[in-house]
Amino acid sequence: MLFAASLMTAGMLVPAPLLAHARLLRSEPAAGASLAESPRSLRLVFSERPVAELTRIWLTRANGDRFLLGVPQRDSADQRALDFALATPLAGGNWRVDWSTASRDGHVIKGSFNFTVEQSAPQAAAAEQPDSSPVGAVTEETPLPPALSGAFGAFATRWLAFLSLFAVIGVVAFRFGVLRRVGADEDADPFLHIASTNAASLGIAAAIALLVSALLRLFRESGDMPDVPLATMLLSTLWGWTWLAQCFASLAAAAAFRAIHKTTGRSRHNAWKVALAAALVLSITPALAGHAVSGDWSLIAVPADVIHVLAGSAWLGTLAVIVIVGISAALKTPEERRPGERVASLINVFSPLALVCGGTVLATGTVTSLINVSPLGALWTTPYGVTLIVKLLFVALLFGAGAWNWKRLKPRLTGDNALVPLRSMASLELVIAGVVLGITAVLVALELP
């Protein structure tokens, strides 16, 4: 129940209807327009760059005739606009446009609008569907059934993905950034061997959880786009390739962590290298499936997001591994050396790493915020900005808890009586970190200002 408070707090930050990304800015013809003759094409302009392969438009006449338009063309001068050519002139009367699309990070949105053609023209044949929308009605909606495609299901899936990703990277950072500096030979040092093996066990669970979150997300996204073939979704979009990379990297990480249990010596070391490579691949996936890749500053936002994830995971993920694995390994190691001394050796190595990573998180987070929140007034006037402020407040608490642990508890670590307060304070720090990740799961589902 360590992160139960995180899930409940972050999940209540933003009401469900706000959990949508891109929106339709305008259309040609405009909603409610009355045209003298049939348009030659339809044009949709969104607040973010949509994926043409995932965009569908249906035209429905008042008598129920309905047909699907072909693949849209992207405007080279405006990457947020899509044009649909009309091969056949539209007959006179009221027409409804039903559209669905997804931004480059996979968020699905749908909507509809109406326009009227005054002059009669030959009509394209189609299947039937009643037209019940009044002229001029415009709706934009993200379906919110009670299943996994609902707003809370989407949040929980992303929250699980962030927690799992931080844990996988944290396990690798713990082994290469902490244990390797405490001692070099895992086979000769029982403490290092126990800590490394138990960390790998945690890595297996985290990698499997990350794979499950990816499968749940695919189920949700494909359910929101029933008219798009799965092969198109996975193989023709950046979101799909990112999803495949996450799945394969999660499987590779789980296999590598499993191999660590069965091997020793060079083979064990090579398994850790495979886990390291998989963790690096996984660190890129949030940037390629979130706001970073969708905006106009993606060349800056994507590297900043990758560094942000790596630094945050190396800091908080490694701390989680120390609390869950490191302290218990020190208590279980059958040696004369006191457990407090073992834990002190871990913290002494971890503290400089945490300071560097914390500063990096602050710097990259500032860059990302400046890119995403424009103008500055959007920070307190938009759902994204307000949620970001809440996140920053919890980040400040996180830094405060870390500073307290470093200044008050670190000097006392050589004594075994300091292990209990250290574990308690570090657990509190991790709960706050869980809340921060939960708020992040909400942020990535909100429309940018």
Quick structural summary:
The protein is an alpha+beta fold and 449 residues long. The protein is built from 12 helices and 11 strands.
Outline the fold blueprint.
Elements: H1 4-11, E1 24-28, E2 34-35, E3 41-46, E4 56-61, E5 65-68, E6 73-75, E7 78-85, E8 93-102, E9 108-117, E10 127-128, E11 139-141, H2 151-182, H3 190-224, H4 230-235, H5 238-262, H6 265-288, H7 291-294, H8 298-332, H9 339-372, H10 378-381, H11 383-409, H12 419-443
Parallel strand pairs: 2-9
Antiparallel strand pairs: 1-3, 3-7, 4-5, 4-8, 5-10, 6-7, 8-9, 9-11
Helix pairs in contact: 1-12, 2-3, 2-6, 2-8, 2-9, 2-12, 3-5, 3-8, 5-6, 6-8, 8-9, 8-12, 11-12
